[in-house]
């Protein structure tokens, strides 16, 4: 992608692979080729300026941003970069992770896999690499501290869509008739409803498992009511 941004000729050659939006694509098919290329070049210039501004304003390659590079399977496996450069000082402090427990796991990480295992792991995406494949037969993480940190970083939102969705849920739950809901109850209902939306579930098709019942036994009556209220509200 960066190569495309830096080379105008490659950009024009592969411009059909880029999605500019339906309206823009329709326009490009109805105007002369020179004008269409001008629009593509303007888009290119926009991306170049945006990239330069991001590099100028954000401390990329330093501090916590540098430490986030540990997520790359190539870096974790020692194929790219020097794993000894990572101290995890900033990121561990940010997410309240024990750096002293993490560093021994990190320094021995790549040596726990055979050559063929490394090759297979390097073909995986970042999420599958850290969340799915770093478990033993008992479904426990092989590297609990690193995996914990990876889960924290991978759950960081990359846009404001998630927060906007929560605001929408809050307005549905906390109405004029339900304006005395406590913050704890409101939070619980929003979390449950957000989960139901992500899993495409509602009270009619939700299947209560034995593990759910065991957890319900440890909860107070108010929390249980909130759970069933969230199920009903999501269906309604």
UniProtKB/TrEMBL annotation:
Lineage: Eukaryota, Metazoa, Ecdysozoa, Arthropoda, Hexapoda
Residue ranges of the TM segments: none
SUPFAM superfamilies: Ribonuclease H-like (SSF53098)
Domain of life of the organism encoding this protein: Eukaryota
Pfam families reported in the protein's UniProt record: Dimer_Tnp_hAT
Protein name, entry field: HAT C-terminal dimerisation domain-containing protein
Organism: Bactrocera latifrons (Malaysian fruit fly)
Domain HAT C-terminal dimerisation: 129-194
Entry's Gene Ontology molecular function annotations: protein dimerization activity
